[in-house]
Specification:
The complex is a heterodimer. Chain A is mainly α. Chain A has 9 helices and no strands. In chain A, helix 1 packs across helix 9, helix 3 runs antiparallel to helix 4 and helix 4 runs antiparallel to helix 5. The chains are: A mainly alpha, B alpha/beta. Chain A: InterPro entries: DhaK_L_YcgS, DhaL_dom, DhaL_dom_sf, Dihydroxyacetone_Kinase.
């Protein structure tokens, strides 16, 4: 299968639902080790994304991904804005001109998205950031031959849960040092919502 | 004589407004623009606000951006990358002290490079 424009809309709608449903939860995670606004910021950003993309007509998958990127950059407010915004912008650029996205191109696009986030946040895997969800998911996706919703969801969940054991060295949580251990990284949790929403979208499309 | 434009970026609109008040005591005519808070003036930063501030403050001497916390830096970098101007720099300096020194240096008609350098050494007594 290939990812179509309509599926990207569904993906964003599902991600928005999860973020809205878990707004308080994300905020409580961020209150423990950050500045406590991740839930509010993500809820605001994804609400705007859905408003932007739901009614619009898109020629290509890259066009809609670019709008997602610009909306997140403009509306989120916290670090998640430039990070997720950069990710979707890189993904969009990677699949530029494509009406729909085949699996290989999508994985390549995600790799470029990840590289963009690492550069934007000056961060690597293992520093208790959203990269710790993205990197393992992409690693597993590279090994698969096509979209596999169970693999996507399970890998994202396991990766997200692992961030509990990591000591933060980037972002606001790094000020806490060892006290950041034992808490989930909020960005990794919201990234899990993003990937599990993608998995649900693919499952629905089969 | 044109002066280097200065954009102050903070998570809070009040922070940059206060800093501008302090700057105005010593450097009244220096082009200083503010990008504090999100589009809704809540705590956070906005690429669009930073871009708009750059547009308002740009002179032929360029623009220096000074920011407070992590995501402000990311949004500052994004704004620079999306801008058509080549002469925009981001200073690695404490917001208040850096902005104060930068405004004084800019007021003397210094170049972007010199203003940035002075701004970044704001806490050193040189």
């Amino acid at each position: 299968m290939e990812l179509q424009v309509e599926q990207i809309v569904t993906w964003m709608e599902k991600a928005n639902e999860k973020v809205q449903d878990n707004k308080e939860y994300l905020t409580s995670l961020d209150q423990a080790i950050g500045d406590g606004d991740h839930g509010i910021n993500m809820a605001r950003g994804f609400k705007e994304v859905v408003q932007k993309v739901s009614g619009s007509d898109y020629e290509t998958a890259s066009d809609i991904l670019k709008d997602v990127a610009m909306t997140l950059m403009g509306k989120v407010g916290g670090a998640a804005g430039p990070l997720y915004g950069t990710a979707f912008l890189k993904l969009s650029a990677s699949v530029k001109g494509k009406k729909s996205i085949d699996y290989g191109s999508f994985v390549t696009g995600l790799e470029e998205a990840l590289a963009g986030m690492k550069q934007r946040g000056k961060s690597e895997q293992g520093e208790k950031t959203l990269i710790d969800t993205w990197a393992p998911v992409i690693e597993e996706m590279k090994k698969a031959d096509g979209f596999d919703c169970d693999l996507l969801s399970a890998t994202a969940k396991a990766a997200m849960e692992k961030t509990k054991d990591i000591k933060a060295t980037k972002g606001r949580a790094s000020y806490l040092g060892d006290r950041s251990i034992g808490h989930l990284d909020p960005g990794s949790v919201s990234s899990y919502y993003l990937f599990t929403s993608l998995a649900e979208t693919i499952r629905g499309g089969k | 004589m044109s002066q280097v434009g200065i954009v102050l970026i903070s998570h809070s609109p009040k922070v940059v407004e206060g800093i501008k008040d302090i700057i105005n005591q010593v450097a009244k005519d220096v082009p200083v623009e503010l990008a504090g808070g999100t589009d809704e003036n809540e705590i956070g930063t906005s690429v669009e606000k930073i871009q708009a501030a750059i547009e308002r403050v740009h002179t032929d001497k360029g623009v220096l951006l000074i920011y407070d916390l992590g995501s402000a830096m990311m949004n500052a970098e994004l704004a620079v990358e999306m801008s058509d101007y080549e002469d925009i720099e981001i200073a690695e300096a404490p917001l208040l002290e850096g902005a104060y020194v930068a405004a004084v240096e800019s007021g003397m008609g210094k170049s972007l490079e010199d203003v940035k350098k002075a701004c970044e050494s704001a806490l050193k007594n040189e």
